Amino acid sequence: MRLTHPRIEPVDLDRLDTDQHAALEPFFATDGANKIGGRVGGGRILNIFRTLAHAPKAMTAFLGWGNYILSKRSALTPRDRELIILRTGYNCRSGYEWTQHKRIGLDSGLSEDEIERIKAGPDAADWTDIERAMLCATDELTANHFVSDASWAALAPLGDKGRMDLVMTVGQYTQVSMMLNSFGIQVEDGWEVDPDLKA
């Protein structure tokens, strides 16, 4: 976490204006007459979305693109996608991103040991050739905003669509990490930030 307090407070869900309510609508589920938090965060609307709701039109556009990255329309497997997202979040020093996607990574087939090794990057032991190539490309993108010829060639097993999706995923989660870090979005109550990413 870069900041210990939010620079922009999450919106109060009981005081939403029309545009904010429309932007957050995907996260509401109807339970009789009561509205409850939707499909993420254990029934809560996460702080990232409650913060982005201050710019509701931007948030709606952001969600549309993010839904592609996290969908089956991406050529990346969920496990490979989370490997890339976690490395991006770690490189960006985003405690929130790492905390959220560690949970998703475990659900997508990454082990605790693999998630810990993501911190060490492509030089850690036991990665497959394609995992190492994905981690190298992620490091290049977050450091230099360019995939080298050597890394591009090593990513050939992903195919052109997979390589495009890798670049787009790193780009998306670099942007997400910049927002999380700069807006000071805090993790949800009860979440524990990795000690390596604490402020």
Describe this protein with a few key phrases.
199 residues; mainly alpha; AhpD-like; 2 domains; two-stranded antiparallel sheet; 9 helices; 54% helix; globular
Q: How does this structure look, described?
A:
It is a single chain. The protein has 2 domains: 51 residues, no CATH class; 116 residues, AhpD-like (Up-down Bundle). Strands 1-2 form a two-stranded antiparallel sheet. The chain starts with 17 loop residues before the first helix and ends in a 16-residue tail after the last helix. Helix 1 runs parallel beside helix 3, helix 4 runs parallel beside helix 7 and helix 7 crosses helix 9. A hairpin with a 2-residue loop joins strand 1 and strand 2. It has 199 residues and is mainly α. The protein has 9 helices and 2 strands.
CATH level-4 homologous superfamily of the largest domain: AhpD-like
Spatial order of strands in the largest sheet: 1-2
| Total of DSSP H or I helical runs spanning 4+ residues | 9
**SSE class:** mainly alpha
CATH-level-2 architecture of the largest domain: Up-down Bundle
Tell me the helix content: 40-55%
- Rg, rounded, reads 17 Å
Short description:
The chain has 199 residues and is mainly α.
What is the topological layout?
Elements: H1 18-24, E1 28-31, E2 34-37, H2 47-52, H3 56-69, H4 78-91, H5 95-107, H6 112-118, H7 129-144, H8 149-154, H9 159-183
Antiparallel strand pairs: 1-2
Helix pairs in contact: 1-3, 4-5, 4-7, 4-9, 7-9
